[in-house]
Design brief:
The protein has 21 helices and no strands. With 499 residues, the protein is mainly α. The protein is globular. The C terminus is likely disordered.
């Protein structure tokens, strides 16, 4: 019999590759209203994901017991549903023509989408080669978006109306928002989203590769791997987003990773190669702190020179040249007043409903009531939000993942999600302190991803952005492969019914 070209296993593999390549496109214009077509976050990856969930994830969950480290997420989802159900009894008034039920439905759909990404990512890779393949296709999507960002950077360096119009015309089919003339957005809705995407979706794996010397590609020239090119390309492109939060997250991620996450095997090899001179404990300690500082300078210096082209960017360091300085005034000087107000309103919402919160998506209905006591006219962005305007039908969000969890699911939801995070941190630490050094890359990448999530969560609040779910899912998948606790895909797809 001729060999089948399209087996179920191959179709699942193709869907998985499509899902990974589509990850950078997060505001796709052609999105049905029934699944969030009016939202800002419209991931293109939802299309292959729907088929993956139907043909792989659901059958896999039915065929085997649920791993224990999934339980905190399940409990968090149940607590979020309970908080949301309770909020329906409160008689919350609609706003801007958007009903509470519609808002809740959107919140539940985005949470279901995020959980689907996590479960599919956690379950599908079954071997180290599957993990390698997953990272390679994440890189493929990353290289595509870095290339597109590079084309955008050309008109930021030297503005050319014809080139800008051409790129903008293509961008209309990728994102719902037009491009800016002085910042790049990649394939996302806005420049900060692009910067956050680089930090959370690309850098954890590339940075771990540099630290451990492991590559998911076979090509290597001495110690230079493809990950080196991806890392350098990312560091060159991200300044053109002029995202201050993205820059800060990048610097902290690189610094903390080099300071704390260099694998022990890497240190031992270095010591053996240097022999007598570096065997001294003081010299090792000196090097351990000197290398992160030098790396930090190499990262910051290019940003400084690029930042001199933009007052928006250079405010980060120019503020401290003033005589009278304070943290509160610095936040205002950077233009973060609006985000600070969103966060304060979210905390006030939590403070009024500390146990269960106000339900998914309902923060928006409490925003005006929970505003902090300060002159709002000083912050035009917030003033526009609370002032009725014809045609405006988009509700505000907290723009802070931690405070969204607190305000909408209460302390119970926050504790359960924290348990979910701590469980995945524990999985990576367990592998890190094992004696099997071939897993150093994977635990280093997982820990880099967790650091990236902790930093980026201060400036995003959507369950539908895939980045954090990919991080958690890859950690879970790595742990499953490490513990050999999996069902081969062949057994799942070729399983016969009992006679």
């Amino acid at each position: 019999m001729p060999k089948k070209i399209f087996t179920k296993k191959r179709i699942i593999r193709l869907l998985w590759i499509a899902f990974l390549i589509f990850l950078p496109i997060t505001s796709f214009p052609y999105f049905p209203p029934s699944i969030g077509g009016g939202a800002l976050v419209r991931p293109l990856s939802i299309y292959p994901l729907l088929f993956l969930v139907l043909f792989f994830t659901i059958p896999r969950l039915i065929s085997r017991p649920i791993p224990k480290f999934y339980i905190p997420l399940i409990l968090f989802v149940l607590s979020a549903i309970a908080s949301t159900a309770i909020s329906l009894l409160w008689g919350i008034e609609p706003a801007l023509g958007i009903s509470v039920e519609a808002r809740i439905l959107r919140g539940l759909i985005t949470l279901a989408f995020g959980c689907s990404i996590y479960l599919t990512t956690a379950l599908l890779p079954e071997t180290i080669e599957d993990l390698n393949l997953t990272i390679r296709w994440i890189y493929a999507g990353g290289i595509l978006v870095l290339f597109w960002g590079s084309l955008q950077a050309l008109y930021v360096i030297q503005f050319n109306p014809s080139w800008y119009n051409l790129i903008s015309k293509i961008q209309q089919h990728i994102s719902i928002r037009p491009l800016l003339t002085d910042r790049i957005s990649g394939m996302t809705y806005e420049p900060h989203w692009f910067a956050d995407q680089i930090v959370t979706l690309i850098l954890p794996w590339a940075l771990a590769s540099i630290l451990t010397g492991y590559s998911v590609f076979s090509w290597r020239w001495h110690r230079i791997t493809i990950e080196w090119f991806i890392l350098v390309w990312s560091l060159v492109i991200i300044p053109f987003t002029f995202s201050r939060a993205g820059l800060l997250n990048l610097v902290l991620l690189v610094f903390l990773a080099i300071l704390f996450l260099r694998p022990r095997i890497h240190m031992e090899e270095t010591d053996n190669s240097q022999q007598a001179g570096l065997d001294n404990q003081k010299m090792r300690t000196f090097r351990r702190y000197l290398e992160p500082i030098l790396t930090l300078l190499l990262v910051i210096i290019p940003f400084y020179f690029i930042g001199t082209r933009s007052l928006f960017f250079s405010r980060i360091w120019e503020y401290w040249q003033k005589n009278d300085t304070s943290i509160e005034d610095y936040i205002s000087y950077l233009g973060f007043d609006a985000r600070l107000i969103y966060s304060q309103a979210a905390y006030n919402t939590y403070d009024k409903n500390p146990l269960f919160g106000v339900g998914l998506g309902n923060y928006a209905f409490y925003f005006e009531e929970m505003l902090p006591y300060r002159p709002i006219y000083e912050v035009p962005e917030v003033l526009r939000i609370i002032t009725p305007e014809a045609g405006r039908n988009r509700l505000i969000t907290s723009k802070n993942f931690y405070l969204r969890i607190l305000s909408e699911t209460g302390i119970i939801g926050a504790l359960l999600f924290s348990t979910f995070f701590i469980g995945h941190l524990g999985l990576m630490l367990y592998i890190r302190f094992s004696t099997n050094n071939k897993w150093q890359y994977w635990n280093t990448a997982g820990l880099c991803g967790l650091i990236a999530f902790l930093l980026s969560a201060f400036t995003f609040d959507s369950f539908a952005i895939p980045n954090m779910w990919i991080i958690f899912g890859m950690i879970a998948a790595t742990s499953r492969v490490y513990l050999n606790d999996y069902t081969p895909l062949e057994n799942l797809t070729n399983k016969k019914s009992p006679s």
